[in-house]
Structures are given as C-alpha cells and as structure tokens.
Design brief:
The structure holds two protein chains of two kinds. By secondary structure, chain A is mostly helical. Chain A is built from twelve helices and no strands. The chains are: A mainly alpha, B alpha/beta.
Chain lengths: 284, 239
C-alpha cells in the first residue's frame, strides 16, 4: 500500500516535535506527583502543596515575566524607532553587517561580555577608577547580579533588538510601507499620523506572533540569568535547574512542579493568543 | 484657470526628467496624458502632488501658489499605478482613512463611506480585508478612498494598468460617473491611446519630459507623433 506524502510528514512531525515534548512533560508530571523518582513512594500532592505554599514559583514567575516584558518592550520599541529613523542608512552594506553581527553571538557569550564590562571588577569599573570617579570597587554601582536585573536586561536587549530591526526592515519593504506612507501623506496625514496610523499598525500586526514568541523565549531563558541574575528571586529556568540538581531529593520533585506549572501557563497563553488569529495576520 | 503649472523643471542627477512643464486646467475637467514608460509622467504627477520637489517653476491651484506647500496640506491626492490599500484595514476603513485624518464625526464618516461603497458598487464588501477583494474591487476601494476626501485635484498614475480588459472598461465607466458626481478635477496618466481619448476632456502627449497639451481631440488625432494615425492605418488596413 502506498503511503501518502502528507501522512509521512505528519508522522515525522509527531515523532520529532510532539513525542519528545510529550514524553518529557509526562515524566515531569509523574515526578511532580511522586509517582516516579528515587526517593518517592507513590502518588502525593505534597510537592505541589509545598511549592504553592512557599510562593517561590509565583515570585519567580512574576520576576521573569517583568524582565521578559521589559526586555521585549525596549527591544521592540528601540527597533521600531531605529527602523523609522534610519531605514535608508541601514540599507548600506556595512551597517546591515553590523546589525547581523550580534545575532551570531550566543547568549552565554553575551552574558559573559556584560559581566566583564559591568561587574564591580569589570572594564567600566576600572575605567571609572582610573578617572577617579570611584576609589574602590565597591563604590561602582550594582549593574550585574543586581535587584533591578540591569545586566540581564542589557544582554537581552543586545541579543533581541538587532533581530527585530532586521525583521521590521524586511516587513517595511515587503508590505510597501514606504509607498503606503507617501499615499497617506497624499491623503493628508502628517508625519506623526503616518507613524501612528500606517507604520506602527502594519509592522506590529504583521510581527506580533514573533514578538510574543520572543517574550516566551526570554521568559524561559537560562544562560544569561544564570550568569547575571541575583540569588533571589531567580528567573524560572535557573530556579528549575537549581531545584532539580539539589542534594535534597524532595527538591527535585518540587523543581518538576515548577517546570510543569511553567509549561502549563505558557502553553495556555500560547493557545489563547494564537488560536483565534490563525486565519490571517491582519484579521481584526 | 483652476490649475496652472508654470515652467516646472525636475532633474535626477544629470538627467532632466521633466523639462519646462507648462499647462493649465479648468475646474471639474480631466486632462488625460498619454506617454510611453519612462517619459516623465510619474515624476510630473508627483511634482504636482508635492511628493517630489521641483527644481524650478511654479504651481498655482485655485489662484494660490502651492509650490512650497507640504503634500499633506495641498489637498491633492496621488493615486498609485497599483491598487495600493492599507493591508491592516478593511475596505470600509480604507475609504474612511482620509476622513478620519480630518477628524470628521463618526456618524458622518459612516454615512459618507456607506454612500461611497454604494457608488462604487461595493455593497456587502465593507468588512473585507484587501486580500479578500478582487483586483477590480481593490482599485475601486482605492478610488473611493481618494475621492472621499474631496480633493481639489486627483492625480491618477495609470490606475487601470494592471486590470484585465473587461474590468478596465467597467472601471473607466465608473471613473467617468464618479468624477461627474463628485465634481473632480483630475490628471489621468495612461499609456493606452484609447483610454486617453475616452477619459480626458483635454488630451496631452508627453515625450522625453516635454508635455504638449492639444487644443482639441482632433489636433491630437492628427499629430503624427501621438501614434493615432498609425493605429487608424493599422485597423483600416485590416478591413
């Protein structure tokens, strides 16, 4: 019997995309309820109760949410401004190369760069000392492993903003925003009205799916918060890995509880956000 | 005269694209301008619309010098060759675009846009996005959007160039009907001989950056440069 090409594609998608994810999720779920695990003795709600009662998950989730939202907002806002103001200059070969460059640098390297530049013993602290702005390292402001997550935000923005600049430039060209702006001007729109009624809605509506996906990606980012984050609260991925790798065996199950909760929230958000808009990127 | 264009010159680098442009047009009239690709028609329209700055010369609209006026303040609408609609707005909102800029009350916008949709024979299409409309429908929405702002002058740059013969003919008829209904003054650029004769109250021929406006259609037909005689000879030879 001849197997249809589309059936093979679906089978491959299920095998590569669905099965490993589903298996990992089921494993985490069973671990979180104590069904599996070295020190576990069968089904229990103890680990869930412990995580929910301590509030550690919600604190970490809120912290991660605020950092990811701030980083995406700064990146998208900055990229929109750069696209609007410098689109002609960015068409030049050298500048477009400069934008591509940060995309080739892995997150872990960006994290270390930020640490080397902004830590109390880093490049800017030494420069400040040389110029007499500080007399000892402790006088340099906390810019990494700090409460306001300055280092994490800076690294995220450095990593994400160039991607959005390239994306917006591409959409600007493909959606003929230049011609539409001229048309709007001809219909009586001033530069502010063109930006608000043509430029922004077209670019945002065409790219909002990617913006949301990047937000989810940053929400679960690991290397950068691991290098630049503070002790508490931690971003979610760092918290999960730390819990899972603890010597206290009960903590492993609690780590899986956090992982399951995070997966459920992100999946639910993705379903709510993406399902009604699947028909068209411009559908109202 | 409603529109007076005096000694307009426009160059891009060394190349002189529009050379000493001189013509005038009465109110509520259409001047159709025939010319081959690259003869400077689009640059001429964009210069009049203020979208391209002229090197020298003067443009008077209803007696007022608008040469230095910003494009958004001229009340001149330039219509692209293609049916360029705002992709994030439906048909209704595309037509309402110019009206919303003028901050007209919502009730009046609804009334005017619905009337326009009816005039354009687009009833029932108001909620459709540009991708859900046919080429002819998109071009009609584009027209409606331009006319709804009640422009002093409408500049049409080969507006039916991308349409099939049947749709093009229906659009020509619709354009004639709408310009009469809304009392529109317009410059209609085309490279189609028949369309130029059909659409214009006056006819001009543009060649290598120079525009010649004819006294009447007879002069236009008799001028060997326009190619009308060649067409007549060709079709006559087939009979």
């Amino acid at each position: 019997m001849k197997i249809k090409k589309s059936n093979v594609s679906i089978l491959l998608f299920v095998l590569i995309g669905v099965v490993p994810f589903a298996a990992a999720f089921i494993y985490a779920l069973l671990y979180s309820f104590g069904v599996i695990g070295v020190a576990n003795n069968g089904f229990t709600l103890q680990f869930w109760e412990s995580v929910l009662a301590s509030g550690i998950f919600f604190k970490s989730f809120l912290y991660s949410f605020i950092i990811a939202l701030t980083a995406v907002t700064i990146s998208v806002g900055g990229a929109l401004w750069i696209t609007l103001k410098f689109k002609k200059q960015l068409e030049k070969r050298f500048l477009s190369f400069i934008i591509y460059l940060p995309l080739a640098i892995p997150g872990v390297v960006t994290g270390f760069f930020t640490l080397q530049l902004f830590s109390k013993g880093g490049f800017f602290a030494r420069i400040s000392h040389k110029f007499g702005l500080i007399t000892k390292a402790s006088e340099f402001p906390d810019l990494v492993n700090d409460g306001l997550a300055f280092g994490i935000l800076l690294s995220f923005v450095t990593m994400v903003m160039p991607f959005f600049v390239l994306l917006f430039l591409n959409v600007y060209k493909n959606e003929r925003v230049e011609e539409l702006s001229v048309l709007a001007q001809s219909l009586g729109a001033n530069p502010n009205q063109i930006a608000l009624r043509v430029f922004l809605p077209i670019l945002i509506k065409k790219t909002w799916v990617l913006i949301v996906l990047y937000f989810i990606f940053l929400l679960g980012a690991y290397e950068v918060p691991l290098i630049l984050g503070q002790e508490s609260p931690q971003m979610l991925s760092v918290l999960i890995i730390q819990e899972i790798k603890q010597y206290d065996l009960d903590k492993i199950s609690e780590g899986y509880v956090v992982a399951v909760l995070y997966t459920l929230i992100v999946s639910a958000a993705a379903i709510v956000l993406f399902l009604p808009k699947r028909k068209s990127a411009y559908a109202n | 005269m409603f529109l007076e264009v005096q000694h307009i010159v426009k160059s891009f680098g060394e190349e002189k694209v529009v050379k000493d442009l001189n013509f005038s047009l009465e109110s509520k009239q259409t001047l159709s301008i025939l010319g081959k690709s690259g003869c400077g028609k689009t640059t001429m329209l964009k210069t009049i619309g203020g979208l391209v700055a002229s090197d020298s010369g003067k443009i008077l609209l209803n007696g007022e010098d608008i040469t230095e006026t910003k494009p958004e303040k001229r009340n001149i609408v330039y219509l692209y060759q293609e049916d360029l609609l705002f992709p994030h707005l439906n048909a209704f909102e595309n037509i309402a675009f110019g009206l919303r800029l003028k901050k007209i009350p919502e009730g009046l916008i609804k009334e005017e846009v619905n009337h326009m949709l009816q005039s354009l024979e687009l009833e029932g299409q108001a909620d459709k996005m540009p991708t859900e409309l046919s080429g002819g429908q998109r071009q009609r929405v584009s027209f409606g959007r331009a006319i709804s702002t009640n422009p002093s002058l409408l500049l049409l740059d080969e507006p039916f160039g991308s349409l099939d013969t049947g749709t093009r003919q229906r659009m020509q008829e619709l354009f004639k009907k709408l310009t009469a209904e809304y009392k529109i003054t317009s410059l209609f650029v085309t490279h189609d001989l028949k369309e130029a004769v059909l659409m214009g109250d006056q006819i001009g021929f543009m060649h290598d950056g120079i525009l010649k406006v004819y006294e009447d259609k007879k002069d236009f037909i008799q001028d060997p440069e326009t190619g009308v005689q060649n067409e007549i000879d060709f079709w006559g030879g087939l009979i």
